[in-house]
Hints:
The chain is mainly alpha-helical. The chain is 71% helix and 0% strand. The protein is built from 14 helices and no strands. Helix 2 runs antiparallel to helix 3 and helix 7 packs parallel to helix 9 (123-135). The longest helix is centred in the C-terminal third of the chain and has 26 residues, at 162-187. The two termini are 38 Å apart. The mean pLDDT is 91.
Amino acid sequence: MNSDDLSRRSTLELLSLTQQRNSSHENKYEATQSLLKRWRQGIDLEPLINLLLSENSHDRLRGANYISELGREVEGLNVAATMLADDALPACRRAFVEYVENSAYYEQAVAKALTKCLLDTDLYVRSAVIGWATRTSDETFEDFSRMVATGAGRREPRFANPLSNDFWNESSLRRAVRGLDIIRRLREGKQIHQIRTDFPGEDSFIFDIVEFSLTLRDRLARWQER
């Protein structure tokens, strides 16, 4: 299937093609690339937005995968993409963080959503925010830090006993502050093994994910030398 044939097809037809079992891997890939090209230009966004806002988890996951690959901000997608921060699926919440990093899209609603994701119980989501905050600009990081420090985005516990609420509020605050301190160390260029020692309360998998990302180019170079 050539690009001219794909360009004549509607967005809904291309979406259908990516899901057809009898369609070749090459055709699915080309259809996906054609879709991403349209959406990067802000063309025919409604089908993608419908996926992101769908009550069907499989559809939302499809939409999340698409926005992770856009690599840029598409203004018409910003609201729907930000809503993924509250999705029940961790992969969708992570896709929101990836969209923010790839697009450099940032405003107060996004900052608040990112603070939720910093406190996420899914380690991939939390580590994605740590990675974004490590690489973002000084100005954006300082604004994000202030937002975290105010407790914005924290999910309020709802126990009948107020002492139980106090327990989890304090736990969330400690986790938020610890996350910010880890990010600051990373932004300062500290080594992962040093940071691991300084933050025994953080899950080691978080550091594994961060270290994997930081050493990706080095591993690629060593592999190519073989």
